[in-house]
Amino acid sequence: MAPRHHHSDHRRRTTTTAVTALAAVVLAVPITVGCSAVEKALDCAQLAVEISNDVDDLQDALTGAAVNPDDADKILDALDKDIDKMGGRTDNADVGKAVDHLQKAVDNVQKSVDSGQNPDLTPVRDAASELTNVCSP
What we know:
Elements lengths: L6 H21 L7 H29 L5 H20 L4 H22 L7 H14 L2
């Protein structure tokens, strides 16, 4: 019988690959760019990956065999904290706009969860993807 691969294993490999690729791109930035710019890019990329993982966890919590609102609430809280970290660490307009889009999408999911409805995670995924794109150097 073939071994079963869990969704989280694939996600971990994808995340590791994304972080490695982002780090390689950031390290290839010319030396003329100040260290703080490289640090900001790495920080942005790392937080974008954390947010992407939070979104994956939220998807898992909301689509599991037994949907657990407590798990969803914990993940939404983690997302809010990561979004706050991202917003507080950047002065880049594009990143700020992506963070705003993500915050609005997460707020809508929270409202749906609070009212017992099945939330649409598409806007959250789209906003997280936008954030990843603007954080990529």
